[in-house]
Design goal:
Layout lengths: L2 H28 L5 H8 L3 H19 L4 H21 L5 H17 L1 H8 L2
């Protein structure tokens, strides 16, 4: 596959990841839905705190789409998703989804910028 096609695939995957984090995941942190307080308290979070977590989530997702800040954003997303994984493990819920998103973050960035894969797979 040509590099331009890989780059396009990386941007599409990046947009999907950012849309999921910045829109779908953050939506529940900003707007009310049935059992919201119960769900967050089960995870050990206050509803007020989750609003600010949502702001951070959206900001990092936006930074991930900016080429100059994408690398640091990928690191921050990895940390954020590590916290999500830990929260799910703590309450004995399935924890694979944040891990999958974290892997997709790095695959997307590597497709956008081949230097990322060069760092990982260099000898």
């Amino acid at each position: 596959m040509s590099q331009s096609k890989l780059t396009i695939a990386g941007w599409v995957l990046s947009a999907l990841v950012a849309a999921f984090l910045g829109l779908a995941s953050a939506y529940g942190k900003f707007f009310d839905f049935p059992n919201k307080a119960e769900m967050f308290s089960k995870m050990g979070w206050a509803t007020d705190s989750m609003f600010y977590v949502g702001i951070v989530e959206v900001l990092i997702a936006v930074l991930f789409l900016i080429p100059r800040t994408a690398f640091i954003a990928a690191i921050l997303l990895t940390a954020y998703l590590g916290g999500a994984t830990a929260a799910h493990v703590r309450v004995n819920e399935p924890f694979f989804f944040p891990i999958i998103i974290g892997v997709l973050v790095w695959v997307a960035l590597g497709l956008r910028d081949p230097r990322i894969f060069g760092i990982v797979f260099s000898r």
